[in-house]
Structure formats: C-alpha cells, structure tokens
Automatic annotation (TrEMBL):
Native organism: Sinocyclocheilus anshuiensis
GO cellular component, one term: nucleus
Entry-linked Pfam families: Ets, SAM_PNT
TM regions (residue ranges): none
Name of the molecule in the record: SAM pointed domain-containing Ets transcription factor
Gene field: LOC107666045
Keywords: Activator, DNA-binding, Nucleus, Transcription, Transcription regulation
Residues of the ETS domain: 246-329
Family annotation (InterPro entries): Ets_dom, ETS_fam, Pointed_dom, SAM/pointed_sf, WH-like_DNA-bd_sf, WH_DNA-bd_sf
DNA sequence: TATTAGGATGGCG
DNA sequence: CGCCATCCTAATA
C-alpha cells in the first residue's frame, strides 16, 4: 500500500477530530511496531490495517471508509485473484481434512490479530477521550439514548462544528436521543440530504462507545475502583471483558462488528433483525479455534455449538431457513 | 459433498 | 452445572 495519503484524506470530510487524526498520521510508527513481532521476515505491506481499526466504530453504513479502502487497495478488490496479503482473510488454505500447509499462517494470524487489537485499543482510546471531552464541554451524557431534545441539539451543533457541516439542527428539532438512535441512514437522509452520512456515522461512534462502556461497567465491578484506564476498557470490552471466557455468540458478534476484517467470511444479511451469513465456514471455524486454542476446530463442531443456542434462545435459524444463515434472537 | 439437526460423552472452570 | 469440544447418525439440499 504505497499511497497512504488516500487514507488520510477522506473524500468529503476529515472524519475525525484532531487527536484522532494525529494518531492516524503516526501510522508509520505504528507500522514499525506492528511488524516487530513478525518473525518470518516477510516485510510486505499491510493493507487494510488502519481501516480495520475502525470497523468497530463504524458500521458498514460508513460508506466513505469503504470507498477509501476500495480506491486505495484497488488491486485486490477483484474477487477472483485475491493475493494472500492478509492470511486471516485468505480462504485458499482451508482444506478441512489433511492440509499440511495451514500450520504456518496460524502463528502469523495470531500475531497479526494481536497487533491489530493493540492498534485498535489505541485508536479507540483516543476516540473515547474525544467523546469525554465533548461531553464535558456540552454537559451531556455519553449515551445518546439518554439525551433529551436539547442534548440532541447540542450534539448536532458540536458535530457540525467538528466536521464543518452546514447547520442542520432545525431539521432534528423534535427528536430526543432515543429517536435519533433509532434512525436509519435513510431517515437521516430525509432530514438532511447533505450531512446524513457524516451525522449517522458519527452517531454510530457514540452509540458504540456507550454500548461498550455499558457492557463493561455493567458486567463487572472489579475495575470500577480504578476507573482511570480507558484503553483497557475498550480493548477488552468486546472480547475478554470481565475475564470470562468468551462465548461463541460473542465471538461471532465481534467478527460481525468488523466487516472490513471479516466481511469476507461472515457478514450481516439484515443487521436490524440480527440475521447473518457465514460466507466461509472453514475460515470462521479456524478463527474460532484460534481464539479458543482449539487447533482441531472445524465448522462441524462450531455449528454444533451454534445449534446448542437454539434451545437457549440465543441464536436460531431465520424464518426462511438458508444454508449457513443464522439469526440472533435478540439483536442489539 | 456440504450442511443441518440433535443425541451422547467428557473436560474444564 | 454451564459451555463447549468432540464424535456420531440420519436427514436434507
């Protein structure tokens, strides 16, 4: 990935606050750190790393991110000859039975997985800080669901200022936080054609932040006394929060939350209804085995565990049953 | 041939 | 005991 400038200059907005951008601009340094643990001597670039970092912040609705990634890595969007640049996304080595080769990428995957999480937690920490700053400044809570109409207006004003958007507050004057959160991007578009994308994406960041914060503080009180460390909060909120072993359904949610990294092997068919499709069963199983330290994991066994969820009411088959398609009973 | 459904069993925290 | 991981049979696409 030679032309990183495209990543730093989204088409129509800066996309992030100064501090977030500053972090982005340090990407050379991060690259070095990132490759340090890579012992196999392969020095190839790492397309998608920085974009992947934001998968947990942006949903697939954040079109500009996707667009940037497509244009900057235009060589590998062809579905046919996708070069094996990111082993975790390479489906070629998925011979389930007697493959002799899949051993080498496994270690690499773990290393990349880990360094990716490190970068993620860094970025996420910055974003969290920005949100906290904004909350203090505006005297609002971080959770958009708790906002009243006045809070919504303040947030809009702040966001307009941040992204240098035209003032569109009037179009949202009758909405409180709950209303705002329930709006799709299309709803946003109806009220503000020019700013819908940015507003919706930015609100998504806040929603994600509130969601993760709630999950962490609600689940475990151990960390409460030392509430000073945010990166801990975020980097572990989605996976190993509260030290409990991760559940399969949580793991699947994690993958679905990072479409840029895992969209090729698992993706939402209908996010609102919680319907998702496993596009590459062997790949997902391999990732699950990686996480649980079960090298012999395969889709046969993974799917058996998913089926255990039927009785528990966590995951079910959608009304129109399709192969490799499941549905969360309780969508977020 | 891959996927699906679900029974049986055993390991582990 | 809950949550898989593993193995297995039978049915289905």
């Amino acid at each position: 990935l030679g032309s990183d400038s495209a990543v730093l200059q989204p088409p129509h907005s800066t996309g992030f606050t100064e501090s977030s951008l500053a972090l982005l601009k340090r990407e050379d340094g991060l690259e070095m750190v990132d490759h340090k643990p890579c012992l196999d001597g392969s020095d190839r670039g790492h397309p998608g790393l920085y974009l992947s970092c934001f998968d947990m912040l942006f949903t697939e609705d954040a079109a500009w991110l996707v667009r940037v990634s497509d244009s900057s890595t235009s060589t590998d969007i062809g579905p046919r000859l996708e070069p094996c640049q990111e082993p975790e996304q390479c489906p070629v080595i998925d011979s389930p039975g007697l493959g002799a080769s899949p051993l080498s990428p496994t270690l690499e995957e773990q290393v990349e997985e880990r360094s990716l999480e490190q970068v993620q937690s860094l970025v996420v920490g910055e974003v969290l800080k920005d949100i906290e700053t904004a909350c203090k400044l505006l005297n609002i809570t971080p959770d958009p669901m708790e906002w009243n109409c006045g809070n919504v207006q303040k947030w809009l004003l702040w966001t307009e200022h941040l992204y240098r958007l035209p003032q569109v507050g009037k179009a949202f004057h009758d909405l409180d936080g709950k209303d705002l959160c329930s709006m799709s991007e299309e709803d946003f578009r109806q009220r503000s054609p020019q700013c819908s994308e940015t507003l919706h994406a930015h609100l998504d960041i806040w929603k994600s932040a509130a969601w993760m914060k709630e999950r962490c503080s609600g689940g475990e009180t151990r960390m409460r006394g030392t509430s000073q460390k945010q990166h801990k909060l975020w980097s572990e909120a989605d996976s190993s929060c509260s030290g409990q072993p991760i559940h399969l359904w949580q793991f699947l949610r994690e993958l679905l939350l990072k479409p840029h990294s895992y969209g090729r092997c698992i993706r939402w068919l209908n996010k609102e209804k919680g319907i998702f499709k496993i596009e590459d069963s062997a790949h997902v199983a391999r990732l699950w085995g990686l996480r649980k330290n079960r090298p012999a994991m395969n889709y046969d066994k993974l799917s058996r565990s998913i089926r255990q969820y039927y009785k528990k009411g966590i995951i079910r088959k959608p009304d129109v049953s399709q192969r490799l398609v499941y549905q969360f009973v309780h969508p977020v």
